[in-house]
Every structure is written in structure tokens, then in C-alpha cells.
Write a structure and sequence with these properties.
Distance between the termini: 46 Å
Number of strands: 0
Strand content: under 5%
Shape: globular
Order of helices and strands: HHHHHHHHH
Radius of gyration: 19 Å
Number of domains: 2
Structural class: mainly alpha
């Protein structure tokens, strides 16, 4: 086994650990609880979870998905978030290699993952993630990423401005959390990628909306959180944005 392979395995395990922390964030932030104190504990019996019962993925399997103390079932979301974060970090490594791109977009990826599951469960996008995310995105873009400060600033205001306009014209059809989320994405990715993010998220959201209406009897007033679609669009822009933009600009050439 080569050193590079060992490094990749180490990064994946680090991603699993961060995924375990994201589960704390996803559970506690919407309930306005500290993500630091108290230590991880079972929500049902309040027993503190020991370190050997808190190993990502492995502990869930060994415990058969139940709390060791009270045997209440642990939501399947926990191993899913851990797996997705570990797999995401490994995929970003494959996309960018070792460097600041990997660090910056791993941070964005984890933020998007947490926001996705919070929005799915509570239909909110926490400001405590998006506001710092805008600042961190601008700092990364202006110092360590090839995006550049001006490009990132345009992305931030273009994405947020377009969504604010939609919210104004639709009189509340777009949530404030989504406005801040697309602004954060723009700060990390720049204006071209933020436009691509909006296009892909709108396309995916429309497709899911049509499916819900045709096959599940939902109407247009059925609330569908848009944060997960923005996260999907952002990830598509990060992984394949250059190829998609190149294909589109040369379409018919």
C-alpha cells in the first residue's frame, strides 16, 4: 500500500469524523442548543455516548443501530451523513488533488451537507452557517483559490441579489435562508458557477415538483425546501462546472 493511498484513507476517515460532528450540528442547531456542550448523548435516555460507541459507521453497525443503554433506535441519518462526508472528501481529493482547493471545498461541502439535512427536517437554513460561510468564502477566494476576490464578490452579490429579487417579486416565494445560502456559494465559487448553480438547482427542483404533483398528489403550495437543490447545484458546479460551461458555450459551434 503506497503512502498516497494511506493519505487518501486517512482523509476519508477524517471526513467520517467530521461527518459525526455534523450530526451534532444537524440535531442541535435547529433546537438552538450548543454544539460543544454537553458531550454527545442519547436524546432518549440522556446517557453520555462513550468513545467506543461513537466511532463513525462502525459503532452504528456493532450496536445494530440502537443506543447501548436504552435500545432506542438511532436514526439512519447518522451513518448516512458520516458516509456522505467521508465519500465527499475523497471525491474532492480525486477532483482537485492535495492543496487549498481541497481544504476550501471540503469546508463548503460539509456546510452544504449540514444545511441540506437541517433544511429537509426543519425547512430552515441557519444564519450561523451562511454568514460566516460568506466571509470565509471571500477570504479563501481572494487569497488561496484561483477564483479571486472580485469574482467571488460578484458571485456573492449576484446570487444573493437575484434571489432577493425573486423573493421581492414573488412576495415571499423565496426564503431568506436561501438568499444567504446562494450568496455563500457565490463567495466560494464566483459568478459563473453561481449562475450554473441556480440553473441546475431550478431544474432539479422543478423536476421533483412535477414528480410530487403527478405521482403523489401534491399541489404547488406543498412546501419543498430549496436548500438541498442549491447544494446539489453547487456540487455539480464544483465537480463539473468547467466542463458544463465549456459544453454550453460551444453548443452548436
Amino acid at each position: 500500500m503506497t503512502f498516497i493511498t494511506l493519505m487518501a484513507i486517512g482523509l476519508s476517515f477524517f471526513g467520517l469524523l467530521i461527518g459525526s460532528f455534523l450530526n451534532v450540528v444537524i440535531y442541535r442547531l435547529p433546537r438552538e442548543k450548543s454544539i460543544v456542550f454537553p458531550a454527545s448523548h442519547c436524546p432518549a435516555c440522556q446517557k453520555t455516548i462513550r468513545w467506543y460507541d461513537n466511532i463513525p459507521l462502525i459503532s452504528y453497525i456493532l450496536l445494530s443501530g440502537r443506543c447501548r443503554s436504552c435500545r432506542v433506535r438511532i436514526p439512519f441519518r447518522y451513518p448516512i451523513v458520516e458516509f456522505l462526508n467521508g465519500a465527499g472528501y475523497l471525491s474532492l481529493l480525486y477532483r482537485f488533488g492535495w492543496g487549498w482547493n481541497l481544504a476550501a471545498f471540503s469546508l463548503l461541502y460539509s456546510a452544504l451537507l449540514a444545511i441540506t439535512f437541517i433544511d429537509l427536517s426543519h425547512q430552515i437554513v441557519p444564519d450561523v452557517i451562511t454568514y460566516p460561510g460568506m466571509v470565509i468564502g471571500l477570504i479563501f477566494s481572494s487569497t488561496l483559490l484561483p477564483v479571486g476576490f472580485v469574482n467571488a464578490l460578484i458571485g456573492l452579490f449576484l446570487g444573493g441579489g437575484l434571489f432577493y429579487l425573486v423573493a421581492f417579486l414573488s412576495k415571499g416565494g423565496m426564503g431568506g435562508g436561501d438568499i444567504k445560502l446562494i450568496a455563500m456559494i457565490g463567495a466560494f465559487t464566483g459568478w459563473k458557477s453561481v449562475l450554473l448553480t441556480i440553473f441546475i438547482s431550478a431544474l432539479a427542483g422543478s423536476a421533483i415538483g412535477i414528480i410530487l404533483m403527478l405521482f403523489f398528489g401534491k399541489n404547488r403550495k406543498f412546501p419543498v425546501p430549496f436548500g438541498p437543490f442549491l447544494a446539489l447545484g453547487a456540487l455539480c458546479a464544483i465537480f463539473w462546472g468547467d466542463k458544463i460551461i465549456f459544453w454550453y458555450t460551444h453548443l452548436g459551434a
